[in-house]
Fold:
Amino acid sequence: MATNQNKTPSFFNFLKEGVLLPSRNRRLFTAVCALILVSTALLVLGNDLAVQPIHNQIQLDIKALSTAEPGSLQFTKLLQEIQNDTKELLLVTMRSLLIAIVIGSAIRIVVLFAAVSTYSSDGEQRATTFGALLGQAKAQIKGPLLTLAFVYVLEIVCVVPLVAMVALVGFLVLKQYLVALLVASLLVIAASVCLVYFSFICSFSLVVAVAEPGCHGAAALGKAWRLANGKKWQIVLYVAVTGALASAVLPVHTLARTCAGNSVVLGLLLGLVYAVLLALVQLFAVCAMTAFYYERRESIGSQLGATGYAKVATEEANA
Structure:
């Protein structure tokens, strides 16, 4: 998408572009939106049917356990049922989470290819049909997949110490070591902020891998880091807006589960509304991040000259 490089984009411009981007390729994004909606609805429905009933049963058993006499047969039976249900819940949750990650990652890559193709400034590589998009993605899928696997490993490595620090905070709460608790809490907060920023960079690197064939893995992550350098407040804005939108649609899901007990039809309708809203939030998040990438790329390109960015990108990919 052609832009005027002599004019500096506004602070909020990438968010506006994220909203408008689908309208520039309606035919393609109609199919993409349908794909996101179907996958989101199936994942939400799968969670409600597989995970939520077990969780509800555990809550009921815990309430019954609080009224049972300790040491009685009923108490022992309820305790055993809670333990068994908890193990089952963990297994089902892990399985559901794995399926959600696989499906979500596939959809994310497809949406990224659609966003990058639509944002293409020359228009030559723009896909206008879903079939053309899949053909384009199939030809370039290796780089994004390698980048996705790479950043997932890095994120897991980063999450493990944070979980350990949270466990340490819990231990300090029990022991009432106030000074150590304060220090550990501040470290957890700082580590959480760093993890959010790093997660953004990881997601941003996937945009780089899709937009720049040949740049993947550590190279894409490094390029994403450099493109985002000096734009921390725009990153904060992106995280705040997408987080607020995701939080805003959550009550619809809660209402859908509540209403499902009285009216299955109403519960399904509200569940569909939730899936639509969540799909739109996901689409906006990907499109806004893509717009941010091209905004930064064009900004750096205008500083380096007409061929400067392309030359640097080629040198980094071959390094």
Summary: The chain is about 85% helix and 0% strand.
